[in-house]
Recover the amino acids of this structure.
């Protein structure tokens, strides 16, 4: 039809109304096409937006699930770590207890015991066991050290010389108090002074004893290692 119009333009004049209608139809088609394109773009944008929102929700859901999983794993790891530390604490406590109980006056030398104890504490520090937990491990160890201080200050395995029956009974009572009810330094001072056993040497030993109770370490390690030779209680000895 277009070719006929171009070859015979008179037809266009003859059919002027028809030409106007065609122009309107063409214009309408353009408008419809433009609107269609806009609509398609809008639909595409909406689809993309919906997909984006869905993707965001999925990402958030996955993120929450991952966080929950990581928290669960972290809790399990912490629980496992605590269980391992508790086991190590128990084993260390038993080992130190057996060590300190074995031949306190003889057997394993005091220097070697200290080396073993320090090695255990170094290991507990390496696994990041808190200091307060390490103190629990050392609890029985320290009680026996205190017991030995009392025992050795009172003459160790020897019996006091030249004492009355009453003084001997007091001496026995102090020695029998045990590791959970040990005599305090002031009690030892009072007894030794009353019985004329309180020499300068014994005063210094009691100061060592006080220092250990407070600080859980020896004031004079070399003197502690020599405790087997602190000697028998003798009135007015020097």
């Amino acid at each position: 039809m277009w070719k006929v119009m171009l070859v015979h333009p008179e037809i266009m004049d003859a059919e002027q109304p028809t030409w106007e209608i065609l122009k309107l139809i063409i214009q309408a088609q353009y408008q419809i096409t433009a609107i269609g394109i806009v609509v398609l773009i809008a639909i595409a944008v909406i689809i993309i937006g919906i997909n984006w929102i869905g993707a965001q929700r999925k990402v958030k859901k996955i993120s929450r699930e991952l966080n929950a999983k990581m928290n669960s794993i972290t809790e399990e790891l912490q629980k496992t770590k605590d269980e391992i530390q508790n086991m190590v604490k128990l084993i260390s406590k038993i080992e130190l207890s057996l060590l300190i109980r074995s031949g306190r006056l003889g057997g394993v030398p005091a220097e070697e015991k200290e080396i073993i104890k320090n090695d255990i504490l170094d290991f507990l520090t390496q696994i990041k066991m808190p200091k307060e937990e390490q103190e629990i491990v050392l609890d029985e160890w320290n009680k026996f050290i205190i017991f030995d201080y009392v025992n050795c200050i009172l003459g160790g395995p020897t019996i006091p010389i030249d004492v009355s029956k009453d003084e001997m009974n007091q001496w026995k009572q102090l020695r029998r108090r045990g590791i959970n009810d040990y005599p305090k330094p002031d009690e030892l001072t009072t007894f030794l002074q009353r019985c004329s056993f309180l020499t300068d040497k014994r005063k210094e030993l009691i100061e060592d004893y006080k220092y250990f109770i407070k600080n859980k370490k020896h004031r004079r390690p070399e003197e502690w290692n020599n405790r087997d030779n602190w000697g028998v209680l003798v009135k007015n000895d020097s």
Q: What stands out?
A: Confidence is low (pLDDT under 50) at residues 1-15. The two ends are 142 Å apart (CA to CA).
